[in-house]
């Protein structure tokens, strides 16, 4: 049975080096983790940050819960906040590969000149930049380690040839989020935390027409509310908009209700967002990143222990 530590020691919140993992295992996880229905990024961000805030409050207040109740809460958290985190990771993983089709296979040689990249991985990257099928060519190298593949993708964006609004440094920074996760420099939760703010050459990453619906201004509003205080400050706005649906929303609503009730057994006056959010998934970034900041939410900052936040700072894990 889980303990309250479940919420801060869950595998999604612990960095792990996965470089040797075969690509085929990542592809299998991808195809079984993303819900087939459209997801709105605004609601996704709301569920992610709201779930993290309540999970942290549970570990901070440490209410007395029966094993059965704790197991139920843990399940609700994973099936809402945890699932959204995985969905965003795999969405980001997909778009960094699919964007390669806008590159130039002849410029791939420039990007990898003097390197000892695996010939099969290089051939796959070249094939995709020539307009080849993402699934076909990635699956053809399914036996290869994902770390080497992500290295190649990030390098191609940073050093290959790109034209117009395609590829280039901003896409290299998007790929870097996945690379840092695969390398074990960040946890899945922290990688997702950064991914919500990522931008490519023409705006936020949520305009690819699959999995996530297109973003709107409330994505920036949600990120700003989370950075300054708490996403629950926007609860009425987000919940009342029928466009902001998400397949795991009913599970999240149940988690919120039960988590708040548990916290209130220790702190009767507690209301989500009332005193500012407490989170433990990286450095807070305002939605300026969504609007085109150079950093785009990417940071290589090392992670430290959980601490309390001020109104403008986030704890790190």
Please provide a written account of the structure.
With 317 residues, the chain is mainly alpha-helical. It has one domain (6-264). It is 52% helix and 1% strand. It has helices spanning 6-9, 23-33, 41-61, 67-98, 105-111, 119-129, 134-140, 146-159, 169-183, 188-195, 217-228, 235-240, 249-264, and strands at residues 199-200, 203-204. It has a two-stranded antiparallel ribbon. β1 and β2 (203-204) form a beta hairpin. α3 packs antiparallel against α4, α4 packs across α10 (188-195) and α6 packs antiparallel against α7 (134-140). The radius of gyration is 20 Å and the shape is elongated. Residues 276-317 have low confidence and may be disordered.
Task: Produce a short descriptive summary.
The protein is mainly α. It contains 13 helices and 2 strands, in the order H-H-H-H-H-H-H-H-H-H-E-E-H-H-H. Strands 1-2 form a two-stranded antiparallel sheet.
Unreliable stretches (pLDDT < 50, length at least 5) are 276-317
What would you call the shape?
Answer: elongated
Q: Rg to the nearest angstrom?
A: 20 Å
Biggest sheet record: 2 strands, antiparallel
